[in-house]
Amino acid sequence: QVQLVESGGGLVQAGGSLRLSCAASGRTFSTYAMGWFRQAPGKEREFVTAISWSGGSTSYADSVKGRFTISRDNAKNTVYLQMNSLKPEDTAVYYCAAGKAPSSNWYRRNEYDYWGQGTQVTVSS
Predict the structure, then answer these.
(1) Integer Cα distance of 115 and 82 in angstroms
(2) Cα–Cα distance measured from residue 22 to residue 96, given in angstroms and rounded to the nearest whole number
(3) How far is CA 106 from CA 8, 44, 82, 86, in A?
(4) What is the mean pLDDT of each run of 10 residues along the chain (125 residues)?
(5) Pairing assessment for the beta strands 46-51 and 92-99 based on DSSP bridges
(6) What is the pLDDT of residue 74?
């Protein structure tokens, strides 16, 4: 079992930066790939980024590539999402997820077994 809790969301101006954290509990954290998804009002939850259990492989949605960076610290049971050059379109609830999916399936929501409660990110213009 893995339990996930996101934090670090808030209100920022366009062009600003924000760092989200996802704290995990459970002894098997390091064996899971970790992903970030986001959901804006009226839209489906969409893939943002994911990272392998070792941190050696990452994947990003085209919409955030070059602006967002995912990382993990297995010693701290934590995954991070560094968001730079934020745009109003980035406004959403951001969710952390854990799963055993291969990288080819990281973008699929149903490949993740555990989800956090979400943290709100609002980017003002």
Answers:
(1) 19
(2) 6
(3) 23, 16, 19, 23
(4) 94 98 82 94 96 91 98 92 98 96 94 96 97
(5) unpaired
(6) 85
